[in-house]
Amino acid sequence: MLLKKILLTGPTGFIGKRLLYKLDEMGYWVRCLVRRGETLNLKIPLTREPEIVYADLLDPDSLSAVLDGMDAAYYLVHSMGGRSIRQTLAFAEKDRRAAENFRQAADRAGLARIIYLGGLGDAGDRLSHHLASRHEVARILQSGTVKTTVLRAAVIIGAGGASFEIVRYLVERLPLLLCPKWVYTESQPISIDNVLAYLSGCMEAPETAGRSFDIGGHQIVSYADLMRMYARVRGLKRSIIGVPLVPIRFSAYWVNLITPVPAGVVLPLAEGLRNKAICRENTIRKLIPISLTSMETAICNALAEEAEGPGKLLSQQACFLPEDLT
Ligand SMILES: NC(=O)c1ccc[n+]([C@@H]2O[C@H](COP(=O)([O-])OP(=O)(O)OC[C@H]3O[C@@H](n4cnc5c(N)ncnc54)[C@H](OP(=O)(O)O)[C@@H]3O)[C@@H](O)[C@H]2O)c1
Fold first, then answer.
1. CA separation (Å) from 39 to 10, 32, 34, 60, 66?
2. pTM of the entire predicted model
3. Which position among 12, 14, 95, 233 has the lowest Cβ density within 10 Å, counted as fewest Cβ atoms?
4. If you measure from the C-alpha of residue 77 to the centroid of ligand 1, how many angstroms do you get, rounded to a whole number?
């Protein structure tokens, strides 16, 4: 069955905003779920004007009709955020409630499919709060009657992505980077264009329904490697020195001072650095064969986009205000 009408959650976010354009290009009819009207501020017009519905996933009553008439939905939402480190631990409870509310609404509406983008990282690996919460959301969505596809990704390289912006600001601003040992944990980043190809490809591949896939680029690198790559691509001389015994909270405060990424996003992400984020399997490559972008190219693409206006991310919770980096 060709699914045509899609509900997109998170259309103001880093990934949702880009997926909206991709789905429009592919001829889908999209209904966007937003919390605030003014935030879906599209600079380039779409072929078809998307329908906008106002709802908050934390308010089950607001979800009563948003899925009516829809075939499928993308779940691209998280609740990390806030300007204070103290607010940060509330996100897991909010994400649990949001996923439960959405699963119930999707079951009631009889959706054919949900596609969710979560995080890589293995349960046996003393998971951080952030990754444990991403996995919990996957389990909640999969426990309903709707066939749910889960894609699991590590850092996504693209302008406005939280992890990429942290790397970008740190390397741009600091000639000497004194880093905690977690920056040597291995991960398998992926470019935003590859993520969009997998997200949209799953909608067109019925065999991906109800299954979970790891997605990653070709290269397995540490965050320190990623910072070195960024410096190389930008032609910057940078020294990265590992410093043992730096508490996560301290490094999160420090990253928060240097970058515009809110503390409520930095702490859970920094805590997640201790977990390896590498694909356990590559089935998706057979089902959706795409050519994988190298990290260097992904960084160049992100920088080209930044030149147009750095990470014009309109999400309220992760807004990286354009700032002069000089
Ligand atoms: N960025 C990465 O590197 C990365 C890596 C791996 C996986 N992922 C996954 O990709 C997904 C999307 O992430 P992202 O980077 O695009 O995040 P983002 O830019 O911070 O966007 C989050 C979106 O969620 C919306 N939202 C939050 N709470 C909501 C609620 N209660 N009701 C309705 N909407 C709500 C936000 O709307 P407002 O504009 O109203 O705040 C925003 O549109 C997440 O599941 C994340 O775990 C991201």
1. 11, 11, 8, 21, 18
2. 0.93
3. 233
4. 4
- Closest C-alpha to 179, from 234, 243, 111, 236: 243
Give the pair of three-digit tokens for residue 130: 């952030």
Q: In angstroms, rounded to a whole number, what is the distance separating the alpha carbons of residues 258 and 242?
A: 18
Is residue 249 predicted with pLDDT exceeding 70? yes
Which two tokens mark 180?
């905690």
Beta carbons within 8 Å of 291's beta carbon, 6+ residues apart: none
H or E element in which residue 193 lies: helix 192-204
Select the highest-mean-pLDDT range: 176-180, 310-314, 321-325.
176-180
CB-CB contact of 102 with 67 (8 Å): no
Mind listing the pLDDT tens digit for each residue in 95-114?
A: 999 999 999 999 999 999 99
Spatial CA neighbour of 296 closest among 252, 247, 211, 231:
231
Domains in the chain with CATH codes: 5-153+192-215+280-289 (3.40.50.720)
